[in-house]
Design a protein that fits this description.
With about 100 residues, this protein is an all-alpha fold. The chain is about 85% helix and about 0% strand.
Length: about 100
């Protein structure tokens, strides 16, 4: 168990750094990257509150669903951030 914990102390930060790097390379903006990254913890908190309000037990299936939610959440957040800035990037508009 100690070896696993030591390995996770290395793997988790490297993975998070790679995620931030990939998001930044995708959006080319620190602000958009921050918005996408902030969507993940807020969705996790909302999911836990919803599970509590519905009275669900925290089973393996629920944990798998939460992990899937956390893995899926950056995609719609990234799509929304690109849609919000799309009108400003059209030719002939101010700010283009």
């Amino acid at each position: 168990m100690q070896r696993v914990r030591e390995r996770l102390w290395l793997v988790v930060p490297v993975t998070l750094l790679l995620i931030v790097l990939l998001l930044y390379l995708s959006t080319h903006s620190l602000v958009k990257t921050s918005i996408v990254l902030l969507a993940v913890p807020f969705s996790a908190v909302g999911a836990v509150w919803f599970l509590y309000l519905l009275g669900y037990n925290m089973s393996i299936g629920v944990w798998v669903g939460l992990i899937a939610l956390l893995g899926w959440m950056p995609k719609p957040a990234s799509s929304c951030s690109s849609i919000w800035t799309w009108p400003m990037k059209r030719p002939g508009r101010r700010g283009a």
